[in-house]
Amino acid sequence: MKKVCQNCGSKIETSLKVPGLEGVFVCLECEGWMASSSLSLAELSNQVYDETYFNGKEYINYQASDAVQRLNFRRKISLLDQYNFFSKDARILEIGSATGLFLDELKKKDKSIQTMGIEISQYARQIAEKKGHRVLTPESSELFEEIRKFNPTFICAWDVWEHLDSSVDTVTQYLNSSPECQAVALTTVDVSAVIPKRKKKKWRQFHPPSHLNYPSRRSFVLFFKKYDYEVIFQKAYGMYRPLSEYLFALCPILRSWLCRFKILYKIPIYMNLYDIQMVIAEKKNDHQ
After folding, report:
1. 47, 80, 84, 190: most buried by Cβ count inside 10 Å?
2. Is 13 exposed, middle or buried (0-12, 13-18, 19+ CB in 10 A)?
3. What is the pTM of this model?
4. How is the chain split into domains, by residue range?
């Protein structure tokens, strides 16, 4: 029986195991990696993406590094502005909106922009909702009906694709529920880069069950082509991270002591290891 690659959407009869990575397969069409999770959405929300995910596991302190996170989102908005995606009647759907920082920055840019978020973490979702954002849970039985009502003109997903158990199936459902969507933008890992090929399971981005799908650059060329979208931007994308994250990684034994210095969360340090990609795809009839 054919399976669907969750990075490019191709139907594949066979897939190869990635040497040295137990339970991880590579698609023969796009060379993306695929892992799997036995956890339900509710279990992911409560066990993986709980408060500790944002405070100690994935992030040292997400809210304390608010200024650095916002800097990254403003850079994304500045890039997307070059393509005029944020008109006054724009309806922006963000998949994986966390505490709503990107939605905050969109509202600062233009209050007339309509926004809606989707977030699996109840902890993060509640913070976003307290700020006045409309953020839905992917567990909702009415999710796709609500998306159809909102009818987004633009969909974005920042560092989310790799977290989805069925990335292609999930994003396909969002696209099918958004007939007026003009463009999609996302950042995610790039398994076709040099570092993952050399590091494999020691690659900093390889950590199931929070990261499950690892697309290549070719993955998105194939995926978006199926929906009559054209990839108009695809490059390695560096990001700012707070100085605290670098120091804690280098000196974990000093972590409890370094946590006292809140200024470390506010100092941005830029790094680009060329293993993260930014992708923008636009409907062909809108691009022409």
Report:
1. 190
2. exposed
3. 0.93
4. 3-287
